[in-house]
Amino acid sequence: MEDTYTMLIENKKELIIEPFGYTLFIVFTTSIEGSIQKIKDIYPEDYEWGDMQGVVALHSKHPEDSLATVFFGYDPNIDEVVHEALHVVQRMCSWYHVKDYETEAYLLGYIVNEILKFHKKCPKPNKKRLKIPKKVIKSIKKRKKELDKRGKIIV
User: Fold this and answer.
1) Within a domain: residue 30?
2) Farthest CA pair distance, the chain
3) Which member of 44, 65, 80, 95 has the greatest number of CB atoms within 10 A?
4) Which among 85, 118, 117, 119 has a CA at the least distance from the CA of 104?
5) What is d(CA 44, CA 4) in angstroms, rounded to the nearest whole number?
6) What is the pLDDT of residues 70-115, one digit of tens each?
7) What is the pLDDT of residue 92?
8) How would residue 2 be classed by pLDDT, with cut points 50, 70 and 90?
9) What is the rounded distance in angstroms from the CA atom of residue 97 to the CA atom of residue 100?
């Protein structure tokens, strides 16, 4: 089987949730793991990450700021959207010490609606894969073995 490489494609939206001023980034991606790794590379200590094994959607919050990100694949179901939106609401209400169920219910409906509206506007990614020639793959594997022998780390 020939190795293939798929480019990471993301559609992002910044949503400021008033009156709190809470920032929520909504990300639809071809690879949740790839998008998370990209953020970890840029901000290695800034986010709290839970167990990411086999995730189909994910909520991540900044531990010291009123900021969160939700990640979805390009075809999330309503259960995934509501689940992640509820995490956002719980985090917001905890952050701002809100203990009013009516406010929580309003926020949940608002956030779910905003995620779904953005999803409708997102162009769906082309699932075409870029084929890497066998000669190039062989060269990469050979180079990796050489570097591994010298104790160099390859990411």
Assistant:
1) yes
2) 62
3) 80
4) 85
5) 28
6) 999 988 999 999 999 999 999 999 999 999 999 999 999 999 999 9
7) 92
8) very low
9) 9
Entry pTM = 0.72
C-alpha closest to that of 114 among 151, 72, 145, 153: 72
Domain assignment present for 28: yes
Query: Which residue in the block uniquely carries the two structure tokens 């780390």?
Result: 153
What radius of gyration, in Å, describes the C-alpha atoms of the chain? 19
CB 27 within 8 A of CB 15: no
The residues, any chain, with a CB within 8 Å of residue 25's CB and separated by 6 or more, are 12, 13, 14, 15, 67, 68, 69, 70
Amino acid found at 123: P
Q: 102: number of CA atoms within 13 Å, CB side?
A: 0
* Domain extent at residue 66: 4-128
What total number of domains does the chain contain?
1
Residue 141 lies in a domain: no
Instruction: Measure the CA angle with vertex 48, ends 53 and 10; round to 5°.
Output: 65
Whether 151 is in a domain gets the answer no
> How far is the CA of 125 from the CAs of 3, 27, 73, 114, 119, in angstroms?
20, 13, 11, 20, 12
For residue 29, what are its two tokens?
């991606």
